[in-house]
Specification:
alpha+beta; elongated; two-stranded parallel ribbon; 317 residues
Length: 317
């Protein structure tokens, strides 16, 4: 192993800091999930969504009051902007499409709006239950497929640490949604599944380099697994950062100028891609190195040549 860098960033030397930061973020996310919970879109729990557009100077208080007067017991009202015009997204528990249309029409009439200013979408509870089951099944299949692929291609320990990094990314992302109160929609679920792919890609790239570098060790060359891990991260970190920046450009564009549907997807992608890049070198690789160093071969090398250092020197020097 010979580095292309004149120096190496000591990622592994600071593994406890990275793991500590992640532990704090995960705890905050779990607290948010337990205390505030997730807000699910009507696609999951059933209900009605009314999209009001071109509402002018109508305030959110006026909109909520008109909805209540029209018969909506506890509507959730959010402001929205479509093509530069003010509007609102209203969600309620109403599952009867006739009642939902009547409430929307009465609300529009009370606020001086017409039928052109709103669109009503109603989803029954059975459809929502099917969507929830399908989403959970997709996540379960994805996790099992990841474990199987990485175990066959590399080793079981790599598959487990890769999944830990994925769970880390997903839990923190969901924690952000819990604290902000943004609704979980099928677009968000699609983004979360996409996030798993991006996170796994960065992790597998690092694992591949670690695997190859560990195989290249020759007799008389002494490297600890921590040193191999740090060296491997430095080999691929620039590519990982460039990939993340490239993929974030269209995501940011969708978040800034996209409509409500695109923003649901883009917000989750923005958080998840950043976390995926971070977790590959701050969670997956350090955990793997810590686990591998417990093996007799690597434990012996660590006790002899580790000396508390996570810096790799060039092979043969």
């Amino acid at each position: 192993m010979r580095s292309h860098f004149s120096f190496e960033i000591p990622f592994i030397q600071h593994r406890k800091v990275f793991l500590g930061i992640s532990a704090v973020l995960v705890v905050l996310a779990v607290v948010g999930l337990l205390v505030r919970g997730l807000t699910f879109g009507i696609e999951f729990q059933g209900g009605t969504e009314i999209d009001f557009t071109d509402t002018g100077d109508i305030t959110i208080e006026q909109m909520r009051s008109a909805l209540v007067d029209a018969g909506e017991a506890d509507p959730t009202v959010q402001t929205a902007t479509t093509d530069g015009s003010n509007g609102f997204i209203v969600r309620s528990d109403t599952t009867d499409p006739n009642a939902a249309n009547e409430h929307a029409a009465a609300t529009a009439a009370a606020l001086g709006l017409t039928s052109d200013n709103y669109l009503t979408t109603t989803i029954g509870p059975d459809w929502g239950a099917d969507t929830t089951r399908s989403s959970l099944l997709a996540f379960g299949v994805a996790i099992l497929a990841i474990i199987a692929y990485v175990s066959i291609r590399y080793e079981f320990k790599m598959s487990i640490t890769a999944v830990v990094a994925l769970v880390h990314d997903l839990v923190i992302t969901l924690g952000v949604y819990a604290w902000t109160g943004i609704a979980i929609t099928p677009n968000v679920v699609a983004a979360l599944l996409t996030i798993m792919g991006f996170s796994l890609y960065d992790t597998v790239v690092e694992f591949n380099r670690m695997n190859e570098n560990a195989k290249e060790l020759k007799d008389g060359v002494h490297r600890t697994y921590y040193q191999i891990c740090n060296f491997s991260i430095n080999e691929v970190i620039v590519r990982s950062i460039n990939t993340t920046i490239t993929t974030l450009v269209p995501v940011v564009a969708m978040l800034v100028i996209g409509g409500a549907t695109l923003r649901d997807f883009a917000f989750a992608m923005l958080i998840g891609e950043a976390l995926g890049t971070y977790s590959s070198f701050a969670i997956a690789s350090p955990l793997l190195a810590m686990w591998k160093t417990r093996e007799p071969k690597w434990a012996a090398l660590e006790s002899r040549y580790g000396a508390g250092s996570a810096t790799v020197t060039a092979a043969g020097e």
